[in-house]
Amino acid sequence: MRISALIKRITLQLLRDKRTLGLMFVAPLLILTLMYFLFNGNTVDPKLGVVGIDEQLVKGLEKTDIQVIEYEKASSDTVIDKDLDGLLEADSGNMILTLKNDDTSKAKALQMKVNQVAAAQVQKKLIQQSPAAGGMATKQIDTKYVYGNKDTVFFDVLSPILVGYFVFFFVFIISGIGLLRERTTGTLDRLMSTPIRRWEIVTAYLTGYGIFAIVQTVIVVIYAINVLDIVLAGSIFDVILINLLLALVALALGILLSSFAASEFQMIQFIPVVVIPQVFFAGIFPLDGMADWLQAVAKIMPMYYAGDALKAVMYKGMGLGEISGDIIALAVFAVIFIALNIVALKKYRTL
Amino acid sequence: MNPSIIVQKVNKSFGKKPVLNEVNLTIGKGQLYGLIGPSGAGKTTLVKMIVGMEKANSGTIHVLDEKMPNLAILQEIGYMAQSNALYLELTGEENLKFFASLFKLNKDEQRTRIAYASNLVNLTADLKKRVAAYSGGMKRRLSLAIALIQDPQLLILDEPTVGIDPELKLSIWNELLRLKNDEGKTIIVTTHVMDEAERCDMVAMVRDGAILASGTPDELKDLYHVGSLDEVFLKAGVKQHENLGVN
Q1: Which one of A1, A2, A189 has the shortest CB-CB distance to B85?
Q2: Residue A223 φ/ψ, nearest 5 degrees
Q3: I want to staple A329 with a disulfide (CB 3.0 to 4.6 A). Which of A40, A305, B96, B168 is the partner?
Q4: Residue A83 CA: distances (Å) to CA of A62, A71, A261, B71, B80
Q5: Are residues B164 and B128 in the same domain?
Q6: In terms of domains, do B191 and B232 share one?
Q7: Residue A273: which pLDDT band, with cuts at 50, 70 and 90?
Q8: What is the pLDDT of residue A142?
Q9: Separation between Cα atoms, residue A212 and residue A19, nearest integer Å
Q10: Chain A residues near residue B103 by CB distance under 8 angstroms
């Protein structure tokens, strides 16, 4: 069968090209790992000086990985001298938190932690004193988490999107350049002089590169979940399914856009135009705050749906039923791009 | 016997640039037909249209009594493009096998055809090497072997002997003549080397998208009252330019 001959050839070609394989399988892991350490970087425990704080609160603070040092007396000078990140003083019932604030993100994190711990303590006390008042207090100091927990870091929110994005990016580049090379070396012309049909070429390309996309997807997902310990609340099979659909979209889009590139160099130029903008609409930046027209743009980005679906499954633990809209959207993208591919090959032969 | 190829009033332009202008061509079965002309004359476009890879703006092309483009007829056309069009990551044998399976040859046929074609172009010893390690001439030879892989009735070779040493060139031409004489194959060759044109049964001079003259090499020489095809070529070119000047 012609399709299987073509699939076999594509597979052989890729297997012989070790560097491209490396790019596809190792590069996403490398970047993911790097991002993991970047975003989890400031895990140095903040140092907090305390004066006259009751023991229970100190214990609570220490539980949240704050290094608590008790002082008899302290001032803002102590913070600088002892290189503390903050100082918590009890002053006639009120508490004053002095933050060094040389690193704003660190200061904010510390402030948040202290507030949370203090609020929790207050709440506990209130509940002990009168259970009725406890309900009121929770309204004022909201420390509930809808998703995630106290260990949640930004990377956990980001990683589902990144996993999908890297699959999209690398599949796009490699499949696009794969077919492009076939054009520039004249082998596509030669293929067209054989009795192969256009849809057979598209099918074979999708399958041939699809095999590698599947392997890549599985490696990236398993690595992200097992090695990097990314939160996976939902099913891993759902994650793989979403990524496979996304890979199919990227595959079809890459092959399609390669018809509009005359060289590898021009193919690379599609990255800033087509690939990078995807990440802006993938859910890393909140869509609600965007201008109306930008929100409309987001709706035509495959990554918007993939990001939404991945976040839903990996972070919020939703099932396929709840993300069926995203799945359908991705499938529609894939079908459109595949159909356009068959049309685009008309440039070579009408049959 | 019906002619193998009939090209009727074919026009083709890329954008606004006309490439072929009212081309008529009839190639009989079992002929070795040479298309000669300078680079950019439209030879490649013409052969691509015969294969069905380009669509004519107007006019018709029939190959083996079927109107082109026609997928079934492609089974009977062996096409060798100007560029080598090979998969460098694969070995010579894998390249041949790939194209053989596109033509739906079964395993046994594949084996015998690969052995035959690679022997013909002297590549049997190098079949297991990757094409990336091939020399320019070896790539050209492999490309020719691919054109022969499915044992087609019709061979269309676009500048087949560019970059091939004289000895191999001679053996390829002898083989082309043998294919024509013994197996009755129809062969179209484009070239701008006149001594190759001399060996064709019929030649057509292509210049600026038009066929200036066609006939046997001797007929053309008589027509222009000169002793060699080189001179025919030069004279035909001058004459056309004069005509253009008058117009």
Answers
A1: A189
A2: -65, -45
A3: A305
A4: 18, 14, 57, 80, 77
A5: no
A6: yes
A7: confident
A8: 36
A9: 14
A10: 194-195
A131 touching B, CB under 8 A? no
Query: First and final CA of chain B: distance in angstroms?
Result: 40
Say if residues B194 and B205 touch (Cβ distance below 8 Å): no
Name every chain B residue with its beta carbon within 8 A of the beta carbon of A195.
71-72, 74-75, 102-104
Out of 1.10.3470, 3.30.230, 3.30.1360, 3.40.190, select the CATH number for domain A47-140.
3.40.190
Residue of A8, A15, A187 to mutate, interface with B, max B Cβ within 10 Å: A187
Task: Give the amino acid at A123.
Answer: Q
Q: What is the pLDDT of residue B133?
A: 94
ipTM over 0.85: no
Q: Which of B151, B168, B199 is the last residue of a domain?
A: B151
Task: Tell me the domain boundaries of chain A.
Answer: 2-39+153-347, 47-140
CA distance B232 to A236: 75
Closest to B97 measured CA to CA, from B79, B87, B110, B109? B110
Q: How far is A348 from chain B, CA to nearest CA, in Å?
A: 6
Whether residues B181 and B71 fall in one domain:
yes
Q: What is the pLDDT of residue A257?
A: 92
Which amino acid is located at A266 in the chain? Q
B170 lies in the same domain as B62:
yes
Residues of A in contact with B89 (CB under 8 A): 12-13, 16-17
